[in-house]
Amino acid sequence: MSLQLDFPAVLERWPSFLAGAVLTLELAAFATVLGALLGTLAAVGRGTHNALIAGASKAYVETIRNTPLLVQIFLVYFGLASLGLKFSAFAVAVAALTINVGAYTAEIMRAGFEAIPRGQIEAAEGLALSRLQIYWHIILLPAVEKVYPALTSQFVLLMLASSVCSQISAEELTAVANYIQSDTYRAFETYIIVAVLYVILSLVMRAGFWGLGLVLFPRRRRLGTPL
Amino acid sequence: MGGHLNINHLMFLGQGALWTIGLSVIALIGGGIVGFVIALARISPLKSVRLASATYVQLVQGTPLLVILFLGYFGLAAIGLKVSPLTAASASLTLYVAAYLGEIWRGCIQSVPKPQWEAAEGLALSRTQRMSKVILPQAIRIATPPTVGFMVQIIKNTSLASVVGFVELMRSGQIVNNSLFEPFAIYAIIAVTYFAMCYPLSLFSQRLERRMGRGRSNLAPA
Amino acid sequence: MHQNAPSSEPIVSLRDVQKSFGPLRVLDGVSFAVQRGEVLALIGRSGSGKSTALRCIDRFEKVDGGEIVVCGHRVDRPDVDLRALRQDVGIVFQSYNLFPHLTIEQNITLAPCAVKGIATAQARDLARKVLAQVGLEEKLHAYPEQLSGGQQQRAAIARSLAMQPKVMLFDEVTSALDPELTAEVLKVIEQLAADGMTMVMVTHEMGFAKGIADRIVFMHRGKVHETGPASILTSPTTPELTQFVGTGNLKS
Ligand SMILES: Nc1ncnc2c1ncn2[C@@H]1O[C@H](COP(=O)(O)OP(=O)(O)OP(=O)(O)O)[C@@H](O)[C@H]1O
Ligand SMILES: [Mg+2]
User: Fold this and answer.
1) Is residue A2 part of a domain?
2) Which pTM does this prediction carry?
3) Which of C82, C95, C101 comes nearest A141 by C-beta?
């Protein structure tokens, strides 16, 4: 067994790795923002008194959480195609990741909503706040602050899971690795480098969310205690 | 094959589904054993052991399973260690599952109430006795719901083994599709099959969780 | 009363109010009225319907029958303008219910800004003013969890005051507090009464009720069993009130 590793031969393709990493972050960013919106809507829907909306939200969440992302991506990809709609691999990837992370976000947000005591809402009603104002100031914002750690972990997992988009040839980091290794015949070095890049990306995301948390939640910044 | 979906296709898919279950069991057992070691290492009195296990968890949890699978299959082959898709998938899933189960279980062990630890110490039990006789039996109760919940993640994650050519449910769907070219219908069947395997486990986990009166939401990698 | 008859329209009036939770009849023909500047204390045994009566005034509960008029709002009607009603009525709960993610200042300015559209700078001045009223100016930028229970309850009172309500409702606002903390909250309420605020308060502090209330309403099994000036606490006419004040409820 000749174990001769040649990292420089692979590292000289760094512009491709960089482009892949950037695309991975873009995918994650789009899907995080859209998925957070979708998931919040689904969580709100789950809590309404309208049985149809609540049922549809539950069906969405359970379907997504109990099937693999890889299958979801193929279903979105071929589903859109069978409708005669042509989208870029990037758009399909964003759509599939959004649908996926939306379901997990919905579950987390639901837990956040349920943690808001009834008395908070009564106090707000007593102050004549409108329903929308109550939803925003008294339910949504504190709920997000409560579940922020769980939410951001989920978004980091989403970034890692986006590697699956290589299977519909979105040019993200894992796809880049696949063609570099087939070019250089240096699979081991390539995937080690890519693994390190993913670890760095997840550390960067964690740091970013931590900083964002300090900006978004002044209470946490000052007191350091969870809400 | 060719033309319409027939009984042979379904048999083939069924066989794939069995392999999905088989691979999940392998990953659960392998990942469970390694994960248990990780969990204990994470709370070891030795700083170096704690550091090493924490690093392992951080690295694995910062890497996509797909990349770990590629590393185990193509990567090892490239440096002269040729392994079968089953071996590569089992090993990769084991390492991956271990990092997550290890963290889940560490949390469960540490959530055994403090007085229990102190009481065990007060009884002059050795560290091993304290763990095995007092702490672990309680931790297992706490750990059951999230572990059942994580089994859903394992089943879903085995679908990635298709990418290195292991013929489980996903891969057998792709093979059937290659002859029928009905991708949407076939992947819908695949999705329903995964759902049928995962949903009962999800429900069971939720039931257990409710019975224990603690609502922790499971983080789930896709 | 006869001196200024034309302006004696009560601020709060309940007439023959009925309310049931399922088969349980909680309010069974409750009637009372509160004049401007009057302090009314609702007393009675646990479960007699005091909180329910109070919550009906701010329409946290819908009544099954009878008539409730609060500052001109027909509260018993389904088409009552809830937000207009609640701008006229301030309510303070036993459990404070400050918003934990907001500073005391933000707790206070939220409603004036969002509901009345007051400018931020003006709302901040208002916050300072109402906090001074409850003796908490220095806690302007603190978060609720940094305050003691008594301070939190005073902040909650200040938050209500900032909406400049015409009547304040208090539901056992001191029963979660230690005696010393109770005293500081009661002092604030006394000052409010001295300033002429119209108030309806559910309380178990009989000594306090006796000292501050213009009128006492003693509830028993969903009915107003006895009512009158504070002196009825020392010379009750019904055996139920006699027993109630006799069982150690009347602190000196
Ligand atoms: N939302 C509700 N649903 C069902 N029953 C209720 C509800 N709110 C109150 N009750 C019942 O109505 C009765 C009167 O309750 P209420 O809270 O008005 O009593 P209270 O006089 O304020 O008692 P306490 O001094 O204990 O606060 C009680 O038997 C209570 O259990
Ligand atoms: Mg009460």
Assistant:
1) no
2) 0.91
3) C101
Interface test with B, best of A160, A173, A180 (most B CBs within 10 A): A160
When scoring B66, B166, B197 by the number of chain A Cβ atoms within 10 A, the one with the most, hence best to mutate, is: B66
Rounded to 10°, the helix A141-161/A14-46 angle is 140
| DSSP result, B123-174 | TT--HHHIIIIIIHHHHHHHHHHHHHHHHHHHHHHGGGGGGGT--SHHHHHH
Strand duo C198-202 + C24-34: pairing: unpaired
The ipTM is 0.93
In angstroms, the CA C184 to CA C80 distance is: 36
Which residues span the domain enclosing A161? 7-223
Neighbouring subunits of C (3+ Cβ pairs under 8 A): A
Q: Which residues, in sequence order, are CB contacts of A111 under 8 Å at separation 6+?
A: A147, A150, B215, B217
The string of pLDDT tens digits covering residues C34-53 is 999 999 999 999 999 999 99
Q: Does the residue A74 lie in any domain?
A: yes
CATH number at residue A218: 1.10.3720.10
Q: How many domains does chain A have?
A: 1
Model confidence over A27-72: pLDDT tens digits?
A: 999 999 999 999 999 999 999 999 999 999 999 999 999 999 999 9
The residue ranges of every structural domain in chain B are 7-219
Sign of CA dihedral A82, A83, A85, A89: negative
**Cβ separation B195–A75 shorter than 8 A:** no
Residue A133 lies in a domain: yes
User: What's B7-219's CATH class?
Assistant: mainly alpha
Ligand 1 touching residue C234 (CB < 6 A): no
